[in-house]
Design goal:
Layout lengths: L14 E2 L2 E2 L6 E3 L11 E3 L9
Antiparallel strand pairs: 1-2, 3-4
Length: 52
C-alpha cells in the first residue's frame, strides 16, 4: 500500500509539518459523474483541527 507523504491542508487535524499522519485515507469523487483530474476528487478523511 502506498503512503501519503504530503498534505497541504493546514486546517486538517492529521497534517503535521505538511505530512499526513492519518492511519489511512479515503478519497472520493467530489460529485462529478466522471473523474478526469485530481480537481474532481476530495479526501474524505479530513478532520478540522481543534481551535483552542
Amino acid at each position: 500500500m502506498s503512503k501519503v507523504t504530503t498534505c497541504k491542508i493546514e486546517e486538517c487535524h492529521y497534517n503535521k509539518d505538511m505530512k499526513c499522519h492519518a492511519d489511512g485515507i479515503e478519497v472520493l469523487s467530489s460529485g462529478t459523474k466522471r473523474v478526469s483530474t485530481s480537481d474532481h476528487t476530495c479526501c474524505n478523511t479530513f478532520k478540522p483541527k481543534e481551535v483552542y
